[in-house]
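I am writing to request your help with a piece of structural work I have in hand. What I wish to show you is a protein chain and, alongside it, a tokenised description of its three-dimensional fold. Could you please explain, in whatever detail you think fit, how the structure tokens follow from the sequence? You will find the record immediately after this paragraph.
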Amino acid sequence: MKRAGAYCLLCLAASAGLFFGTANPVLHVPFAILLYPLALCLAARFPAPFRLGWLCGIPGAAAALYWIACAAWRYGGMPWVLAAPCAILLGMYVALWGGIFSWLLARFSQAGPWRRSAAAGALWFLLEWGRGWFCSGFPWLTLSSGLASWPVLMQPLCLLGGYGTSAVLAAAACLMAEGLGAGLPDRPWKGVAAGALICLSLASFGAWRLHGFADAGVPVTLSLVQGNVPQDVKWTPQYQQSTLEKYVRLSTECLRQALQGRTPAVPDLLLWPETAMPFYYPSSPQVPALRGFVRDAGIPVLTGIPSVRWLPDGKSLLLNRASLFSPGGGEAHYDKEHLVPFGEYLPPLLDMEMFRPLLQGLGGFASGERAPLFTLEREGGPPVRLGMLVCYEAIFPEIARRRVADGAQVLLNISNDAWYDRTSAPVQHLQLAAMRAVEQGRWLARSTNTGITAFDDPLGRIHALEDGRGGFLLFAEGHLTGKVFARDGH
């Protein structure tokens, strides 16, 4: 009976850590995410640590990822009977890595508390990295993402990266578990105090960096346009022309305000969201009209626009493309490399005829090849190299790192989070993108269809389109102009 009560407490702690430790509709608590690894470290002391660690994480992970069921049902074409369990299945997958962590940590049962805590940090680093890589990766609900609401707590990302910061948090949680679990029988408070001291050190470093940071680089003015095109009508052929006209109208309004001095400056670039143009490049009859607007406005436009590539055997590839249109007629393209599983492509075993009636509406895109950075030519200023992250790519630290290694001075993220309605997903996605800005020491400009459109500075501070009530502007059209700084180095 006593053991059953302990199991329930561990499950409650892990679930509270995963749900209240990340962005959610109720309350996001600083450092609450530590409850999850703390519970897993304690689970490593019980029989069957893998099973206990796995089961502990399922409720919280499923609750934090509840939005996947909404998207699968409303826009993925799945019946509710299949869509509803999607959050549970995804939660089971995320929690599986927690079970592996508890099982591996149990192998260090004979080690001292300090060595065991160091092992916990190393194991967490490897497993979180593995989750970001295995089967194309899903680095959502990472420990470090639990700090993303507070810039003062995010700053260690610039030194340790997302996985490294998660490792430090896991080590701190393990030290606390050593104290609570009597791993330090002489002075149990030492473990709790040591873990708390690590957290205090992270916050202190953040406060020091926020106070001493001075932005530097070449100023670049960007205008981000949010069209708010409903997902359920977006791909209807009769809406293609009106969607183009909406983005032209919003962009013209943005330029007019700039000329009137109501925004910082005339933009060097107009950034439109992922698949903002719901027609195919280059064959659609709307493409010449898009080029004509860019030519007449005299401002480059970078927009999401799907493309079809025909192969020699007559087959075609559908690509999720970002295209830079210049007033002089030049064009450059980037095809999304890292696709969303189930949303943009189906894993090989599910891409079979027998599953297609159940999974209709899912998949269909092909991965693009690695492409050069976009180069933004500007009058009266040096060219600026832009690193593109399309939607889901912003959650992967290594993709942003690759862009900066290639020479990106500013990161751009275009997305369409209309799939998730007013759930927690858009906020979680925005915060993961902000983490990339801190890790790479770059400004990140983010344009979305329905929100959240924002600028993220290298400190992770979010400057977003607002609704006038202190919240983010969701499911409304608008535009946001701001100045970023193109930087080299790190």
Q: What stands out?
A: The mean pLDDT is 90. The CA atoms of residues 291 and 325 lie 7 Å apart. The chain has two domains: 2-212, 218-486. Residues 218-486 form a domain with the Nitrilase/N-carbamoyl-D-aminoacid amidohydrolase fold (CATH 3.60.110.10).
